[in-house]
Amino acid sequence: MHLTREEESVLDGEQGPGAAKCMEILAALGDVYGADRLIPVESVQVAGVSYRTVGEAGLEFLEDLAASGASATVPSRLNPAGMDLERWREMGVPAGFAERQLRVVEAYRSIGVEPACTCTPYYLEEPGLGDHLAWSESSAVSHSNSVLGARTNREGGPSALAAAVVGRTPNYGLHLDENRVPDVRVETGYEPEGTAGYGALGVAAGEALGNRVPVLDLGSPSRDELKSLGAAMASTGSVALYHVEGVTPEVGSMEYEVEETIRVEEPELEVGDDVDLVALGCPHLSGEELRRAAEGLEEVSTPIWLFVSAAVRGLNPEAAEMLEGAGARVFTDTCMVVSPLDEMGYRRVLVDSGKAYTYLPGLTGVEARFASTERCLEVAAGG
């Protein structure tokens, strides 16, 4: 992969050992994937934030990189951490976990990565059509590529952090026009309803698609429904880009023919009301979703947690206050998938998210049950 003279100087250590290490990561990644060069990125979103995910080795790496003087050169934000950074005691997070989690976030902060801690960074600042990014959380990658028409591969935590420091990413994969064209059509044998319905469709579609680029005909789903669909397809498969005819921004300008069509039927997901926690907000809720939940919940019998970015909560204080007045908890900075639920005593969790339904058992050791958003609110209210 070709490096400019300026990039070579970074690799040679002229901007410090931390920047050199980051350039080394990007150069190696570019060589592996056959990139011709590095390209500038508008923004970065870094995964690998929860202490449950990074562990002691990751914490040591981050603190060493911070000590080296490495510093972000483009706007960069974090993925959710393993707890609400201010209200972790209310969640029941063990103190030992909390201490290490705060060190992880402080190391990122020292490198210049904003601790916004959200999987929906597009609610903070929406990238434009054609913008090149280096984002790493699977649902954020899917949404930015598919719904917004920006361009990013699914970066690993280290490569995204390296891109934050260098301000560039290798030019391969979904940064290239030819890799954004649909190669398979998905037909559905039913009409999905609401964000939960689209999440369930994503569970089944992702299993069938792997990492291909599908095109779907789904009528006119909302952005929240598309968010749920993409998040689930990225969790059961590795779908980083999809197109919906007449809805997503790029498909109308493409010339393409697909030779394969797959048909997806409604999946049978595990249901049940015998749960000890209801959890909504995977990906993080939009302001509209938070307001609808507030309107649909008057009192709480079974504990219910709702997860949003701090920015969305700040823009919707009345909804958050209504929910907490009813007995719910509206947490920021984290979500159920990356929190230590098993260490907090939870065993069975009800969700309306295909992504959460897929990831909870493996990542947190709890059983997952699935229902519509409305049913989740009813269960929380004791109905």
Characterize this entry briefly.
40% of the residues lie in helices and 13% in strands.
List keywords for this structure.
5-stranded parallel beta sheet; globular; about 375 residues; alpha/beta; Aconitase, domain 3; 4-stranded parallel beta sheet; 14 strands
Taking the alpha carbons of the first and last residues, their distance comes to 60 Å
User: How many domains would you count in the coordinates?
Assistant: 3
Cα gyration radius (Å): 21 Å
Average residue pLDDT: 97
Strand portion: 5-15%
Name the overall outline. Answer: globular
Q: Please give the count of helices.
A: 14
Give the strand order of the largest sheet, numbering strands 1, 2, ... along the chain.
12-11-10-13-14
Total number of β-strand segments?
Answer: 14
CATH class of the largest domain: Alpha Beta
Main β sheet profile: 5 strands, parallel
Order of helices and strands: HHEEHEHHEHHEEHEHEEEHEHHEEHEH
Q: What is the CATH architecture term of the largest domain? A: 2-Layer Sandwich
Low-confidence stretches: none
CATH topology name of the largest domain: Aconitase, domain 3
Sheet/helix structural class: alpha/beta
Percent helix range: 40-55%
SSE layout and pairings?
Blueprint: H1 5-11, H2 17-33, E1 38-40, E2 44-46, H3 51-67, E3 76-78, H4 88-91, H5 95-111, E4 134-135, H6 138-146, H7 157-166, E5 168-170, E6 184-188, H8 194-209, E7 214-216, H9 223-236, E8 243-244, E9 261-264, E10 277-280, H10 287-296, E11 304-308, H11 310-315, H12 317-325, E12 329-332, E13 348-351, H13 354-364, E14 367-370, H14 373-380
Helix pairs in contact: 2-7, 3-5, 6-9, 8-9, 9-13, 10-12
